[in-house]
Amino acid sequence: MVFKNTASLNRRNLLRAGAAAGVSSLAMPEVSWAQSEKTVKIGNIDPRTGTYAALGGNQIRGATMAVDEINKKGGILGRPVQLLVEDSQGLPGPAVSKAQKLVNQDKVNFLMGSVSSAVSGSLSQFANQHDLVFVDSGGHADAITGKKCTWNTFRTCSTTWMLTAGDFEPLFKKFGKKWFFITPDYAFGHALYTDYVAQLTKAGGTALGNALAPLGTTDFSSYLIQARAAKPDVLICLQAGDDLVNLLKQTVQFGMNTQMTVAGAMQEMEVLEALPPAALLGWWTFEWYWNQPNVPHVADFVKAYKSRYNNKVPTARSWFGYATAHALALAANQAKSLDALKVVRALEGLELPPEVALQPGKCYYRAQDHQMIANMFPGYVPKDASYPNLFDVSQTIPGGDIAKSPEEAGCKMAYPS
Amino acid sequence: MSTSIDAKLALNRKSGGRVVAAMVIWVVLLFVPFWLPMIGGYTDLATRALIYAIAASGLNLLLGYTGGLSFGHAAYFGLGAYGAGLCLIHIAPSVPLAILGGTVLGGIAGILVGPMAMKRKGIYFAMITIAFGQMFYFIAVRWNSLTGGEDGLTGFSRVPLHIGGEAIKLGPERFYYLVLVLFALVMAIIWQILRSPLGHSFVAVRENTTRLRFLGVAVDKQIWVAFAISTFIVALAGTLNALLTGFASPDNLGWQLSGSFVVICVLGGMRSFWGPFLGAVIFIVAQDYLSSVTQNWMSFIGLIFVLAVLFFPQGLLGFIKGRGR
């Protein structure tokens, strides 16, 4: 444990100046109070590193594009809007640290973002303690707009219940009654599993087993062996992000895609894009898809997004970020105020205009539980799928038909007096 | 050997310069809520730096002064955090009770783990501490019903302090001062320990275990005592962190955080009383700033550490002191 100082004094002297300069510039964050005093600030906390980096990146892209559009149309209350992006690493601890920074240092007016449900939960609690509007753009756990709903938290993406209800019927009718689950071991996974099993039992099917895999698992072989031994009709994979990529690759390596139907609740463009061609398979639910031929404004949005971002098509995550930022601006402009409670009242029942909704039917934040009611897009990965045609939407299901009522979801909203 | 003489001299000497430097640090810390926002910081950032400074100073009692490289001290930090949260949720909504409960939980775990680790030396000591750390991590992840699993423990907050019938809300500034008072208390305790025969025996363990055994000193017991004291201090930091963020999560117990504590000690200077504090300030500020400007911020943290170990092997404070002589 005794350190010997072997570095020569000359070398140390040489590098000392450089290192000292580096450290001092780190200790002094840039100050931009003067210019930014009049801007409306939206704090966007999304994972830029970690398991969900790809998903978080697209949410940020969507939000950035929306903020540019908002600024072109006169901003919020005639003031320019600034999007401040911070990295949550997909973990609740760093996310709250970043929220503290955004609120105390940057004095943001609104908070949005999150991919992981755990982060959504911690940010929702944080925003509630600070009387701040928080729109959860991409964390799906039911509780956020259910049992743990708060007056200041809204959600753009769907609930886990809606994700499972989106493709339950086609799966059950087409492929069989015996299901096996591989579930990521945290709130989101548990919620998906519970919701599927509730519907499966009600319809008279059986859950043969449930293998819980920790977040960030790279080797799924032990879980796949369990699944194969159970001989199910349908193998439900509830992972997201990189975890799902690894799981699907290994499912194909095990040859299990030929023995049973591989399916799951949520599927994302980012995941399909990362898969090798052999692992492109399965029945899933999308929450938004770029190819909607007969819906107005969608093609324009896709074109603008592609030219802006390196010819990549927008994903559901892009839309979450895009719709969330637009919704905040619309609500604040409608309320003619940045006051949290007034903006909340404006967001309640707020219907997205067609150029923001970008899908058929009515998209709105339900007033009673603050849940966005939009469409679900169940479908399957076609044979010989290639980017960007990685998914065939079999139907669009209006969210209102499958969402739990606020009472069923268990939300009891309490407002500050 | 020169380092040990330095350390002893540093401990005994009360030169004017040191007193002035310490006073400057305390005055600067006392006025953080006033000057930090002016340069674009925020009070919670300073609170976080102080919490990490408490943890690193506690670890350094074992690492720097007793010579035990523990890679599992986040376990006691996390136990403190969960202990505080569980106290607030299940026992009583009281911040002092939460701090006490969490600290005792983490400290008792340290007392129990200590005897199993104390007989191991060098790399084996590091291995066994990391193993116990991961054990607590997986308990926290798996025990869903109590700890909330991967989601962490939520649903508690800094309830107001009740003093003399009056409810005092703990906003960011007041909580900073609460943490500052506890930081001062911890530093005073460590200072007293280092000046006592017990502290001298810690340094002796680090310097020459064999000789100490010949002198009839129960070396293992000294390591155990150092280990236990350091876990109490780290657990205290954990309770404060839970109160700062409003929840406890499994990352509070993981090996990455244990590694960060060691990095903080090494960065600031393991042989220096103020080294862990300096390391914590640099680490937290760098992390906070870099992760806002680039998504590759972890590479830069790594780079800072590599440079520090290469060119300031005694830590920044050790380097500055060496220059001054």
UniProtKB/TrEMBL annotation, chain A:
Check the record and name the PROSITE patterns matching this protein. TAT (PS51318)
Q: Does the keyword Metal-binding apply?
A: no
> Lineage from the top down?
Bacteria, Pseudomonadati, Pseudomonadota, Alphaproteobacteria, Acetobacterales
Family, per entry: Belongs to the leucine-binding protein family.
What keywords would UniProt list here? Amino-acid transport, Receptor, Signal, Transport
Listed Pfam families? Peripla_BP_6
Task: Tell me one GO biological process term.
Answer: amino acid transport
Lineage top rank: taxon: Bacteria
The chain positions of domain Leucine-binding protein read 39-382
The name under which this protein is listed is Extracellular ligand-binding receptor
From TrEMBL, chain B:
- Annotated TM spans: 20-37, 49-68, 97-117, 123-141, 175-194, 223-249, 261-285, 297-320
Provide the protein's localization. Answer: Cell membrane
Asked whether the UniProt record includes Lipid biosynthesis among its keywords, one would answer: no
Membrane topology term: Multi-pass membrane protein
Q: What cellular-component terms does GO give this entry? A: plasma membrane
- Give UniProt keywords alphabetically: Cell membrane, Membrane, Transmembrane, Transmembrane helix
Query: Keyword Membrane on this protein?
Result: yes
Looking up Pfam families in the UniProt record yields: BPD_transp_2
Q: Which domain of life is it from?
A: Bacteria
Molecular function (GO) terms for this protein are: branched-chain amino acid transmembrane transporter activity
Tell me the protein's name.
ABC transporter branched-chain amino acid permease
User: Species name for this entry?
Assistant: Acidocella aminolytica 101 = DSM 11237
